[in-house]
UniProtKB/TrEMBL annotation:
Pathway: Carbohydrate degradation; pentose phosphate pathway; D-ribulose 5-phosphate from D-glucose 6-phosphate (oxidative stage): step 1/3. It comes from the Eukaryota. The lineage of its organism: Eukaryota, Metazoa, Porifera, Demospongiae, Heteroscleromorpha. This is Glucose-6-phosphate 1-dehydrogenase. SUPFAM superfamilies: Glyceraldehyde-3-phosphate dehydrogenase-like, C-terminal domain, NAD(P)-binding Rossmann-fold domains. GO terms for biological process: glucose metabolic process; pentose-phosphate shunt, oxidative branch.
Length: 484
């Protein structure tokens, strides 16, 4: 349910720095065009693209020709975000777009390489473009926000020297996904699950974000980044917080984010010298042949990590997180494995464990929920079979396309709702969880990344890791059966 942005008295301008880039073309402008077609953009919204490429308004509109409906609102200025002189020109251009009278609201979107965030934010401060005396000013910063705790803190310091925290919207586009938001509705708008949502009834939780793609042309970037920075610090930990958080007192940004931060605080830190007991690094077999990758690279393209949330609700319940490139399926799913019945009345085969209920939450691609339970096989004498209750968005809401995450996030930023954006302390906590694991992986005593074949489910060591805990990775859509 995306509500219309309020019609402001005056002008609203979205300034996209990095407007000739991939994210703008593939995500931002299509999201804006879709919001426009649904009548959800502020009526007076103008879009100003800024990048160094030399183009005029018409040339820039031509690049975005597919989104002709928006074209009259799109403007372009070539400029370097690190140049104060160019930022002055952006200010002049904004003044000409905004005209006189009323309030002039601006949403600055940094769709730039992360190495430019710092100078972009400082430049906005020095050119006094952050001052909000004649309308609001907000800043959207793309991911990744920092490369470790130290750099994230430095970036937060720069951001806070220019903007108030309530003006800063740090993107994790996973939070804009419908199922991720529906997870909150599922947990807190239904009375039947919450009483079970704790250590008394849940055995463990698995969170998987698997990608089929390799690293493409991004070897230089990826080799410095690896899967822990690329996926764990942001998406996986965000999903974990939503599963594990206490009910906030209201569905509003501060209440929600306070509860998420409490979960991150409660996650037991893994000591670097102990990383081998809690995490498995992997690397797909042809990774070192990729261009831009060092032939001796030990960068993990896969990781499986066991985390514990040290609080009353989750004590003793492991959260297994895994993510990797070049895996068999592209999917994001959360599986809640409940405890087995304490005593089994019905006959089991010799090698069979007492079956447990599982709840699978599919975030993508086929968004929905599956709840598994045992049923009696008809006719057969007390034989059981696992059955599933299924809910899938595309079936339940057929004809209603699921909006792209960027639609939700752009609209929320325009509306000033920061619920689905990460706060400075949240980002820093998340880095403080993954930093020691990254450090541990680089120690000479740590396991080198285990190789895995492209199209597999990761290294066999990750399966053994689960086996030693007496568990197995569960398969999407057929929770309860071990991954092949
Ligand atoms: P690109 O490299 O495609 O685009 C970067 C943009 O920045 C270009 O428009 C470039 O244009 C501009 N630029 C570079 N230097 C300057 C400068 N000094 N001043 C002004 N503009 C400059 O990157 P992406 O669009 O892929 O990514 C942008 C951000 O979004 C990154 O932080 C990335 O991590 C994040 N992101 C991207 C996703 C994607 O799907 N692409 C997904 C999730 C996050 P020019 O050379 O003309 O100046």
């Amino acid at each position: 349910m995306i509500e219309a942005a309020p019609d402001s008295n005056g002008s609203t301008t979205l300034v996209i720095f990095g407007a000739s880039g991939d994210l703008t073309r593939r995500k931002l402008v299509p999201a804006l065009a879709s919001l426009h077609s649904k009548g959800r953009l502020p009526l007076d919204l103008q879009i100003l693209g800024v990048a160094r490429s030399d183009m005029d308004d018409e040339q820039f509109r031509a690049i975005l020709a597919e989104w002709a409906a928006l074209s009259s609102r799109i403007h372009y200025l070539h400029g370097d975000v690190t140049s104060l002189q160019d930022l002055e020109a952006v200010k002049d251009k904004l003044a000409s777009i905004e005209g006189n009278g009323g309030s002039h609201n601006r949403l600055y979107y940094l769709s730039l390489a992360p190495s430019l965030y710092r100078s972009a934010m400082s430049g906005l401060g020095e050119s006094r473009m952050s001052e909000d005396f004649d309308g609001w000013r907000r800043l959207v910063v793309e991911k990744p926000f920092g490369t470790d705790l130290t750099s994230a803190r430095e970036l937060n310091d720069v951001a806070h020297s220019v903007f108030r925290e309530d003006q800063v919207f740090r993107i994790d586009h996973y939070l804009g996904k419908e199922t991720v938001q529906n997870l909150l509705v599922f947990r807190f708008a239904n009375a039947i699950f919450e009483p079970l949502w704790n250590r008394n009834y849940i055995d463990h939780v698995q969170i998987t974000v698997s990608e089929t793609l390799k690293i493409d042309e991004r070897g230089d970037y990826y080799d410095q980044t690896g899967v822990l920075r690329d996926m764990f610090q942001n998406h996986l930990l965000q999903l974990l917080t939503l599963v594990a958080m206490e009910p906030p007192h209201a569905f509003e940004a501060e209440a929600l984010r306070n509860e998420k931060v409490k979960v991150l605080n409660a996650i037991r830190r893994i000591r670097p010298d102990d990383v081998g007991r809690h995490a498995i690094p992997g690397q797909y077999r042809t990774y070192r042949d990729e261009s831009g990758v060092s032939p001796e690279s030990d960068t993990a393209t896969y990781a499986a990590v066991r985390l514990h949330v040290d609080n009353w609700r989750w004590q003793g319940v492991p959260f297994y997180l895994r993510s990797g490139k070049a895996l068999r399926n592209k999917s994001t799913e959360i599986i809640i494995q409940f405890r087995s019945p304490p005593h089994m009345l019905f006959p089991l085969a010799d090698d069979e464990d007492i079956p447990a209920n599982t709840l699978a939450i599919f975030v993508q691609p086929d968004e929905g929920f599956h709840l598994e339970f045992q049923t009696k096989t008809p006719e057969a004498e007390l034989q059981m079979r696992t059955a599933e209750l299924e809910f899938h968005y595309h079936e339940a809401f057929s004809g209603q396309a699921i909006p792209d995450a960027y639609e939700r996030l752009l609209l929320d930023a325009l509306n000033g709702d920061a619920s689905l954006f990460t706060r400075s302390d949240e980002i820093e906590q998340a880095w403080s969880i993954v930093d020691p694991i990254i450090e541990g992986f680089s120690l000479p005593t740590a396991p080198r990344p285990y190789y895995y074949s492209e199209g597999s489910w990761g290294p066999v060591e990750a399966d053994r890791f689960m086996l030693t805990d007496g568990r197995a990775w569960l398969q999407a859509g057929r929770a309860g059966s071990a991954m092949p």
